[in-house]
Amino acid sequence: MPAHFRSRSAALGAAVLLLGACHGANRPSSALLSTSTDAQLRADVAQLAGPAFEGRGTGTPGNDSAAVFIARRYNALRLSSIAQADRAACAKGGVTGSADCFILPFTANVPVRNGAPRQLKTQNVAAIIPGNGPLAGEYVIVGAHFDHLGRDSSSARDPEKGRVVRPGADDNGSGTAAVMEVARRLAKRPANRTIVIANFTGEELGLIGAEQFASHLPVPKEKVQAMVNLDMVGRMKNDKLIVYGVLTATEMKEIVEAANVEPKLTISAVGDGEGPSDHAAFYRKDLPALHLFTDLHDDYHTAVDVAERLNIDGLVRVVDYTERVVRALADRPGRVTFQRVQTAGANRPSARAGSGVYLGTIPDMGAADVKGMQISGVRPGSPAEQGGIKAGDIIVKFGPKVITNIYDYTDALGAYKPGDAVEIVVKRGGSEVTLQITLGKRG
User: Fold this and answer.
1) According to the CATH classification, is domain 357-441 in 2.30.42.10?
2) Structural fold of domain 21-331
3) Which long-range contacts does 253-260 make (Cβ < 8 Å, 24+ apart)?
4) pLDDT tens digits, 227-269
5) Pairwise CA distance, residues 72 & 66, whole Å
6) Cα separation of 178 and 125, whole Å?
7) Residue 25 has pLDDT above 70, yes or no
8) Do residues 159 and 442 lie in contact, with contact meaning Cβ atoms separated by under 8 Å?
9) Interval 159-194: pLDDT, tens
């Protein structure tokens, strides 16, 4: 590999990743490469969301075990690890035969309300798939977070169940399995640019793992073509796929559209590179970034986000689409051109963060061009259902506040407390309907 394949991190210093011929001499087994996509995805999500990993809460033994599971897969695929100068066994990188070298340990500073940050030992997982030819010194990053809530009920949507395991099959077992499958395909047939595969911890705590990785890139930032993120891609409905970040590079919209071949998905394209997932950490470093997402659902952050409820056929379609996008980014002769997107939601609070007040709506995250906040569903028995909000409604006013997007909505909801009565205006079938709703308490 060329000499510029070095970390920009001072910790890695001048350590060179040993790739190239070493990789070619250590091919993965034919059995691993020949397993069908649907069978592999089904097995991987079942493992990630299974009882052994206990919901993969960051800093827990279950999260550590999930990291080892992912690392062993990359080792079995004979991918290359990143050089880690501070770990003697992993200092040279490349194909070492040690799964442990795919694990990137670090100490996270976890924010604590009204207190000093809590230090937590945790890890990302990463691997390298060397490119072919003169573009091998440039990179495409493909990633997903593998953590979830574990037994922590503080961010759960069903806190009344206490410290039960929230398996996180869709969030984000689906994205993790999809990235592992994309890695498997690219290991079998590498692209022109080198692919960096990354699995992040700490997303549920505030993009901690992605921020760590983006701030200590194992490759020169100026050589990175783009980042592609997958988060909650296992519950496809009506062939719909939401793609954020299509305006983060001038060429990105064309790439996203060209990858949508027959039988076509219904792509809901959103320009913004910000948002409540790991892609935002890279976009904030002025890197083009895409985020693939099959939308929120009622099982999100609950104990019933289980593997059996995933749409595996839809997940296969997401993997197929992702591979086409990644190969287009990796194989195109020229670089894509980063551009910053001006949106109402930039640097605003995450729609996934909540307070104690509860309405029970499920936003349609792909309805970016709708003025207001469109609802894809309501939770059974919730204040929203009891008050008359229906799937397809567009909330345009919440109390005195006019709602133009999801950020207005989260701001408005956060201004109330459980038990407050509020007048909510929704647009339904071309008409406005005024509803009187008493807000509940989460759980």
Assistant:
1) yes
2) Aminopeptidase (3.40.630)
3) 255/325, 255/328, 255/329, 255/332, 255/336, 256/290, 256/325, 258/328, 259/321, 259/324, 259/325, 259/328, 260/321
4) 999 999 999 999 999 999 999 999 999 999 999 999 999 999 9
5) 10
6) 15
7) no
8) yes
9) 889 999 999 999 999 999 999 999 999 999 999 999
